[in-house]
Amino acid sequence: MRHAHTTWAPVLLALLLLTACTAAAEQQIIIGTGSTAGVYYHAGRAICRLVNTKVDGISCKAVSTPGSLHNLNNVRNGAIDVGIAQSDWQYHAVKGTGPVKFMDGSFDNLRALFSLHGEPFTLVVGRDSGIRRLEDLQGHRVNIGNPGSGQRATMELVMKALGWTKKDFLLATELNAAEQSLALCLDRIEAMVYTVGHPNASVAKAAGLCDATIATVNGPVIDKLVADNPYYAYTIIPGGMYPGISEPVRTFGVKATVVSSSDVPAETIYKLVEAVFENLEQFRKLHPALGTLVPETMIRDGLTAPLHNGAQNYFREKWDLN
Asked: Are residue 112 and residue 125 in the same domain, yes or no?
């Protein structure tokens, strides 16, 4: 028995060392996304799916988070490597502006990778609520979004432009995206705001289960908001996308963007960007909101932060980006 142990001990030690070296050699990327009910989560998983199947030596994990502001702050402190964030909050992070002054100042090391889908500011309301447009929200029960999310921050900006506070609502709840559609169907709230790509599961649930509809968001205040802020633009939510909502709805919106920090190695980001752009047709099929993406706009639209060196190197090589 002593001889058997002596024979196998070096083999076992070698196997353990090989396993440890393999684990150490594989790098993990953590992508911060959003609620599991939103497009961010599915977009992050789609990116990771391509990285995990197309890139050697790197594993990728998409984690659900409260949303844009959470992702930007955690990219800054190194808790996550990559985050998905609204283009307006990328802008505020770079400039150190916005209603929260981006927490504690500008994020100098923030780097852009590429943009994704458009995200209309979506006001979902009960048909019998009497709410037909944004200005009708006063005096009603409204979910303004969970703290740390892009839609909450955008809603606060809209409220400030209108001169509103929480006291202007009968009730202002702070539910996340996964909770708000059920609350609408149970009549705990009469309206919910969501800055999101379409089609979206939470909006579909509200429209399908409790005959909710989407209200118009425009008017002089929104006109000024769009005119004064380069990251906003008017957009249309197409009709026929959800049960019972056949007509297009006018609102304004932003872009979903993918960001990182200059602290993340260029080679790592190069491989991530390459995995997405070299397999873009497959990427488009992984969620309906990604279906219309084209490289020309992904490289340009909604990107305020400087391009990460890894992304810039890839785009220069493959897309003649100067």
From this structure: no
Whole-model pTM: value is 0.77
The answer on 264 and 292 residing in a single domain is yes
Domain that holds residue 267: 24-117+256-319
> What is the rounded CA–CA span in Å between residue 58 and residue 31?
13
DSSP alpha helices (H): ranges in the chain? Answer: 2-25, 39-54, 68-76, 87-95, 150-162, 177-185, 201-210, 220-228, 266-277, 280-284, 295-298, 309-319
Q: How far apart are the first and last CA of the chain?
A: 69
Looking up residue 73, the CATH number of its domain turns out to be 3.40.190.10
DSSP letter string, 1-29: -HHHHHHHHHHHHHHHHHHHHHHHHSEEE
Residues 124 and 232 in one domain: yes
Digit-coded pLDDT (tens) for 93-152: 998 887 666 667 778 899 999 999 988 999 999 999 999 999 999 999 999 999 878 789
